[in-house]
Design goal:
This protein has 265 residues and is mostly helical. It has 13 helices and no strands. The model has no long low-confidence stretch (mean pLDDT 83).
Length: 265
């Protein structure tokens, strides 16, 4: 009976999540005229008219490109900073380590609203306001505390004995890290990178504060959502949802732990 209830709860939860997404897909791949039909059809007529209308709308291509560039830069910068920081937190035992981890996380306690004006002034002075790099720097700062803790947990699960064995066979500490630790920790690193990329792609508030003429796609879509026609809303929603699914699909092997293994060659 418990198993039946568990499956029923899982099915309800899956339906709660997937049914709205399905209706977004139906609206995005229906013709413009069919979107206004009532009752709404449960399946699309697989027309690209709505998607074409959205993609060709003024400002959308540039906003989409900005979002992709910001997300990629954020993912790269976050992992370049979080990987060594997480490794240091995981490997070096010192007094107050738990308090230090809490301090890292507490940096997210400062609301972005309070910091928005100083950040805007600072970015204006540095010449990165309303640019891809300015938004990427901000998103990196938002993602970094979480990613550092995620990566440190992953590295803590890699036995130290493997690194020591690699060093016995002539590897330097960095080489042991690169050839032994990183392949084993690749699934967790991929998951952390996914978190950083998706956080950046879907973030709205900081991007709206730091952009004016070059908004990201979420900012562009949400700024005109109340006045936009239904085809624009459906296609915009799909464009905001699709990258998450596509990115996870591309790195699913790393997330599931298939592939990487240590090598000393």
């Amino acid at each position: 009976m418990r198993r039946v209830l568990g499956y029923a709860a899982a099915a309800l939860l899956a339906g709660w999540i997937l049914v709205p997404i399905w209706f977004v897909v139906v609206g995005a791949f229906s013709s413009v005229a069919r979107i206004y039909d009532y009752p709404r059809p449960p399946v699309p007529d697989w027309s690209l008219e709505t998607m074409t209308f959205f993609v060709t709308s003024a400002g959308v291509p540039q906003a989409l490109l900005s979002s992709v560039l910001v997300a990629v830069i954020t993912g790269v910068l976050t992992m370049l900073l979080a990987a060594p920081a997480g490794y240091a937190v995981a490997r070096h035992v010192f007094r107050g380590a738990d308090a230090y981890r809490l301090t890292i996380l507490s940096t997210r306690a400062f609301p972005v609203v309070v910091l928005s004006i100083p950040l805007a002034v600072f970015f204006l002075q540095w010449g990165v306001y309303d640019s891809v790099w300015g938004v990427a720097f901000m998103h990196t700062a938002l993602a970094l505390p979480f990613v550092v803790l995620m990566v440190s947990t992953v590295f803590a699960g890699v036995p130290v004995d493997l690194e020591e064995a690699a060093q016995v066979f002539g590897c330097s500490r960095f080489t042991a890290f690169r050839r032994v630790v990183v392949p084993i920790a690749a699934p967790g690193i991929a998951g952390a990178a996914t978190f950083a990329v998706l956080l950046s792609y879907n973030e709205v508030f900081a991007a709206s504060i730091l952009t004016l003429q070059e908004p990201t796609l979420p900012v562009f879509v949400l700024s005109g959502l109340t006045q936009a026609p239904l085809p624009f809303r459906y296609a915009g929603a799909l464009f905001l949802l699709a990258p998450a699914f596509l990115f996870i699909l591309l790195i699913r092997k790393q997330i599931l732990g298939v592939g990487g293994r240590p090598t000393l060659r």
